[in-house]
Amino acid sequence: MELALVVAVPFILALLIAITPLNRLLTKDGRAWVAALTMAVLFAILLGYFPYVQAVDHQGQALSFVTEWVPEFGLTLSWYLDGLSLMFGLIVTGVGAAIFLYAGYYFDDEAEQSRFLMWMSAFAGAMLGLVLSGNLITLFIMWELTSVTSFMLIGFKGAKSKEARFGAQQAFIVTGGGALALILGFVILGAAAGQMIGQAPIYEISQIVNLNLSEHPYYTAIAVLIMIGAFSKSAQFPFHFWLPGAMEAPTPASAYLHSATMVKAGIYLLARLYPPMHEGALWTNALVFFGLTTMLLGAFFALTKRDLKALLAYSTVSKLGAIVALIGLPEYEGLKAAFIGILAHALYKAALFLVAGTIDHNTGTRIIDRLGGLRHYMPGMMVVAVVSALSMAGLFPLFGFAAKEFLIDAFVEAHFIGATLALAVVVLASVFTVTAALIVTWDVFFKQPTEEIHYHQSSPILTAAPGLLAVGTATFGF
């Protein structure tokens, strides 16, 4: 029941923000703190499950909860908590707390702030529901809710911006098309799982993860359809283009959806279905190929962008590709490296997106060629940016170093045809990423500006919120 409440609370918060009389009881700053503290409380609740999850994980089990939905028709909502879902839940709530606080101070207009926090809260509820779902039907419902709420957030400035409308429509069409393949894949997977056990179709995750579907006649269809759904959501080649196109979203949405949460939904699904799917050659080969292709293309295109958010978006595409490739490796070390990469990326990339947002907010531009010397105006933000960018580059002793070390080690130890070429791609993409990190720091904060910068001060919260994430990426490296 408590997990159901964890999922329900963000939806309740969104509803309360949407109801104008209740909304007016809070000041603009008060609304920001209520939203952030709500996410912090949910983080604490989930963190309290850690010892229990750790205990059952050692036994190869998970915590399961069932909530009646429509008992007259035998419909239930089931919730499933293991190490994987707990990790994602902590990212959604922990990183979310910092971003919600930032968002509350990012908007000058109170009506815009309320509307944005409403949709962000609804998205958080959908994302929590997705990663805590105990069956594929509930997971798919939440999957679609993340698409709907992200459409509203990407197109938040749609009344004023043609680019925002286009970006929202493009993201919705790509992820929506992938969802059609995904639901068909789920139906076939459920039927195959039922056949293996001798029952009706099975959609409970607790049962599916104990199966090996690699020898089933439906395996190819299941693998292809689910990969299409996951790739479209997590911006993998050839669906990668929608993510940079979504950068017209307000910066807090980019930090939350497009670095820490929504784009990791497809990765969560691939990791969740690792037990029943990974022994099939189609699954592993496709994940490695498309993941590495995405990693290299994203890292290369990041170097060609002079819009700060576009650069960060393409580097996000690259990191998502690396994680997908790790999940596809035949050895378990790849999965472990993927989890570390997910955590590290959520911290440093969300911080960097918030840095970009504050720079845009304070200077009126995020075009790198129009910036420079910001260390004189924003010394605190400079520290946040340098720490986060160096973590992105993989510098010791930051969290990004551990992630890069596990990434390279996983490919060094991998044994498959083309492993040497794969390692070369990883190293080359990593070099590109280091270069992108240097651009973010040197060109923005240290080089001499080529034109006059019109700077105005903003709330210290816009520095403190990404600062919390930077502390995380500096601390967890140890």
Order of helices and strands: HHHHEEHHHHHHHHHHHHHHHHH
User: Based on the structure, what is the oligomeric state of the protein chains?
Assistant: single chain
Distance between the termini: 36 Å
Poorly predicted regions are none
Radius of gyration: 21 Å
Question: Please, how many helices?
Answer: 21
Number of strands: 2
Describe the sheet with the most strands: 2 strands, antiparallel
Could you write a compact summary of the structure shown?
The chain has helices at 2-18, 20-23, 28-48, 50-58, 83-106, 110-132, 136-154, 162-197, 205-208, 219-233, 242-245, 251-260, 265-272, 274-277, 281-303, 308-328, 332-363, 379-393, 399-412, 419-446, 461-475; strands at 63-70, 75-81. With 478 residues, the chain is mostly helical. 56% of the residues are buried.
List keywords for this structure.
single chain; mainly alpha; about 475 residues; two-stranded antiparallel sheet
Task: Summarize the structure in words.
With 478 residues, the protein is mostly helical. It has one domain (2-475). Helix content is 72%, strand content 3%. It is built from 21 helices and two strands. Strands 1-2 form a two-stranded antiparallel ribbon. Helix 12 packs antiparallel against helix 17 and helix 17 (332-363) packs antiparallel against helix 21 (461-475). The longest helix is centred in the middle third of the chain and has 36 residues, at 162-197. The chain is globular. It starts with a helix and ends with a helix. The model has no long low-confidence stretch (mean pLDDT 91).
